[in-house]
Design goal:
Blueprint: H1 2-10, E1 29-32, H2 38-49, H3 58-67, E2 71-77, E3 80-91, E4 96-105, H4 114-124, E5 132-136, H5 139-146, E6 151-157, E7 163-170, H6 173-185, E8 199-201
Parallel strand pairs: 3-8, 4-5
Antiparallel strand pairs: 1-2, 2-3, 3-4, 5-7, 6-7
Helix pairs in contact: 2-3, 4-6
Length: about 200
């Protein structure tokens, strides 16, 4: 699947557009997910579940946290987790793309720049040689990602029967460098001891 999506994107390239991120970020503490964060992250999912995620999606989210197939970041304010999100690299013999998953923000902190900050934090962790970034998008977050130039390239049917779109955008070293600068200007510091973004072979 990855190779077909990349071939499609090559015919109509659109770079991630970070212009809207300037002035819309918030200073948060970021760290790598740990097993003791499980319950708080689970609560974030439950708070966002209604009207957003498939009705049987919670076990998938729990499994994603447990198997560590993505590098998960957690965002904290006042010592409490207020957001989280994962990033991984999907790789086939002929194609490579970053993949974002489960960008979640506590309802109390939505529309305050935390989602934008989490997006840029995850983008900044992607190696510069990775040319694309993609994700499965739920309807409630579609407009958010499309503002940054992610666009739908395919749909798939979830086990619940709900159709979900897959969105992609193109990356470049200059975009990732700009991303790092925006984070620094917003006072967002990524821990130096973060593990590498995991690679998933397909």
């Amino acid at each position: 699947m990855l190779r077909r999506l990349i071939r499609f994107l090559l015919g109509d390239q659109r770079d991630v557009d970070l212009d809207l991120a300037e002035g819309r970020m918030t200073s948060i503490e970021l760290c790598a997910y740990k097993a003791e964060d499980f319950q708080e992250c689970r609560e974030l999912y439950v708070l966002n579940e209604s009207g957003r995620f498939p009705p049987d999606g919670l076990p998938e989210f729990e499994a994603t946290l447990r198997r560590a197939a993505s590098l998960f970041l957690v965002a904290k304010k006042d010592g409490r987790i207020c957001g989280c999100g994962g990033v991984a690299i999907r790789q086939s013999p002929t194609a490579r793309a970053a993949w974002l998953c489960y960008g979640l923000v506590h309802p109390k902190y939505q529309n305050q720049g935390l989602g934008t900050t989490l997006l840029l934090a995850r983008l900044s962790l992607i190696p510069h040689h990775v040319p694309f970034v993609g994700m499965t998008v739920v309807a409630a977050s579609r407009g958010f990602y499309e503002r940054f130039n992610f666009r739908e390239v395919k749909r798939f049917t979830h086990s619940s029967g709900i159709e979900l779109p897959i969105h992609f955008a193109r990356l470049s070293p200059s975009i990732l460098f700009f991303c790092e600068n925006l984070l620094a200007n917003a006072g967002v510091v990524l821990p130096e001891d973060l593990p590498n973004v995991p690679i998933i072979s397909e």
